[in-house]
Write a structure and sequence with these properties.
It comes from Aliiroseovarius salicola. This is Methyltransferase. Its EC number is 2.1.1.-. Helix 4 crosses helix 10 (about 270-290) and helix 11 (about 315-335) packs parallel to helix 12. This protein has helices at about 10-20, 40-55, 65-75, 85-95, 140-155, 170-185, 200-210, 215-220, 235-250, 270-290, 315-335, 350-365, 385-405, 410-420, 430-435, 450-455, 460-475, 485-500, and strands at about 30, 60, 75-80, 80-85, 100, 110-115, 115-120, 130, 135-140, 190-195, 225-230, 235, 255-260, 295-300, 300-305, 310-315, 335-340, 370-375, 380, 385. The protein is globular and about 80 Å long. It is about 45% helix and about 15% strand. Mean pLDDT is about 95; it is low at about 1-5. It has two domains: about 20-405 and about 440-505, TIM Barrel (Alpha-Beta Barrel), CATH 3.20.20.480; about 415-440, no CATH class. The chain is of the alpha/beta class. It contains 18 helices and 20 strands. Strands 1, 7, 10, 11, 13, 14, 15, 16, 17 and 18 form a ten-stranded mixed beta sheet that branches. The chain has a four-stranded mixed beta sheet with strand order 3-4-2-12.
Length: about 500
């Protein structure tokens, strides 16, 4: 008689069916697009406009070290204004790699950036959350932990990030320690780095060296950090200090003008793109003065401005067109590029939020974006992250991953045999091909009858999303970390936390 299996039983089988482990999606290798709106003359027009801005108007580098570096490199430095000749600019950015590998703590989660590769990264920096109860409130460290956990459990989110929300309950001098520690221990996916200060950037690099090993970090990318230019035409000291730390460590940064089309840039897609290209390339060029060959990413964060209120406006056509142009220019310069998506001015995960999010994602992916930030959760013009919308967005990323993976190989002869066998008036529900190739299904989209939906509580998308977020958190499994590495990381954070005690007012 065969030995009876006693472990698990029916309860375990039910658990496996209702809470299956994530099946992680790899780096998206786009088989659809990119769309090129500009012919060669149009690309040259925007390139010349960007070079003219750099040569004639110039960009302010509000940092004495950067000014000294530029002067030594041969740029025209007048006070804080730096004018960069196009030959110098093109020579400097020529050593930026067109692709790089971003390593995760778990090698199975490692991703590729650049070329036809695209990755999705978490929301970043919101001071508010719309909680599991749907109520808006200031964000906390526990919220950041929760979003790291949800990012770890997401099948399509490649980078859980570093700052999914700003934890208002942690003193600013210690904030980066708590966030980097949590990102490294609660996830085993790639992470972002802190740019709060020069010391925060240095601590981030030191913490990755504890986890990955010094030699590995010196020779590989393990973190990518987000640096914002103050559009128009200003790189400030805090951002430049962080850039020097990461570039010297051979770790890339997303060098990102923050564009409010019609306010901080011209509303014209051509003019706005020329300006932001000049700003990002200037930061990228400076990184190469620090370390030739350091990987960097041409970054943009594009939104419009409401002509009624002056508030940021997401999902409008012009930023979408600008993203298409940025993608084409990034391919001209042969550098990776970053953009933002899935954000909205709505205050709930409603119809506007859905429209805005879709209208921001499609142009970015069709434009061939490599590093896609804010892909989950944003509401309120990027001031709030919703648990409910985060879940819905994460599932939509699976849809985008499937669509942009393109067509699969098909055995047309076998399909014709099915057509012949079934004949007129039949159906294909029972064929081997249908069973083996089901259409992608979003489990939270309700396609039941009205009566069944009503019988199950008449739940709207917000309620369904919050319930799913709770389920994900209840089923989160923390990825393992070696005891000696965890101990060294904990010790580093404890010492730094004590050193960075906020001073009394």
């Amino acid at each position: 008689m065969a030995e009876r299996r006693t472990r698990g039983g029916r309860a375990a089988r039910v658990q496996a069916r209702t809470n299956p482990p994530p099946v992680y999606l790899p780096t998206l290798n786009r088989a659809v697009g990119p769309i090129d709106l500009l012919g060669p003359e149009g690309v040259e027009k925007i390139h010349n406009a960007a070079m003219t801005i750099l040569e004639t108007t110039g960009i302010e580098f509000r940092d004495p070290v950067a000014l000294a570096d530029w002067k030594k490199a041969g740029a025209d430095v007048d006070g804080e204004r730096v004018r960069i000749g196009r030959d110098m600019l093109m020579d400097l950015i020529s050593t930026v790699p067109s692709t790089y590998t971003m390593h995760a703590r778990n090698p199975e989660r490692t991703v590729e950036v650049g070329g036809r590769h695209s990755i999705f990264a978490n929301a970043y920096g919101a001071p508010f959350v719309y909680g599991l109860d749907g109520v808006r409130r200031p964000s906390t460290l526990q919220d950041a932990h929760n979003f790291f956990k949800m990012g770890q459990m997401s099948q399509a989110l490649h980078v859980p990030g570093i700052l999914p929300v700003e934890p208002q309950d942690v003193p600013v001098p210690q904030r980066h320690l708590e966030l980097v520690h949590a990102a490294l221990t609660l996830t085993d996916k790639p992470i972002k780095g802190s740019v709060l200060s020069e010391q925060a950037a240095r601590d981030t690099v030191d913490m990755t060296r504890i986890v990955f090993g010094e030699e590995f970090v010196d020779n590989n990318v393990v973190v990518t950090s987000l640096l914002n230019c103050n559009t128009p035409l200003v790189w400030d000291e805090t951002m430049l200090e962080s850039l020097r730390i990461y570039a010297a460590a051979n770790q890339p940064c997303l060098l990102s003008p923050f564009v409010l089309a019609g306010a901080s840039t011209p509303s014209s897609p051509h003019g706005g793109v020329a300006l932001l290209i000049a700003e990002s390339l200037a930061g990228m060029a400076y990184s190469q003065i620090i370390r030739r060959g350091a990987p960097m990413v041409l970054g943009v964060a594009i939104m419009g401005v409401s002509m009624k209120t002056g508030a940021p406006m997401m999902g409008s056509p012009e930023p979408g067109l600008m993203n298409l142009l940025v993608g084409q220019m990034a391919r001209f310069y042969q550098v990776p590029w970053r953009s933002c998506t899935m954000w909205t001015g709505s205050k709930s995960p409603d119809l506007q939020a859905g429209f805005d999010s879709a209208n921001t994602m499609w142009p970015v992916l069709l434009g061939g974006c490599n590093y896609i930030v804010h892909a989950c959760g944003f509401l309120e013009g990027a001031l709030g992250v919703s648990y409910s919308k985060w879940v819905h967005d994460a599932l939509q990323l699976e849809n985008y991953h499937r669509f942009f993976s393109g067509l699969q190989e098909e055995n047309i002869d076998a399909l014709l045999a099915d057509v012949d066998a079934i004949g007129p008036g039949g159906h294909f529900l029972g064929t081997d091909h249908t069973r083996e190739n089901p259409l992608h299904m979003n489990p939270l989209q309700n396609n039941d009858s009205y009566e069944q939906w009503e019988a199950e509580g008449s739940k709207n998308a917000d309620v369904v999303g919050r319930e799913e977020a709770q389920r994900i958190l209840e089923n989160y499994v923390q990825p393992p970390m070696e005891d000696d590495i965890r101990g060294a990381l904990d010790e580093f954070v404890a010492k730094k936390r004590a050193a960075y005690q906020p001073t009394a007012a």
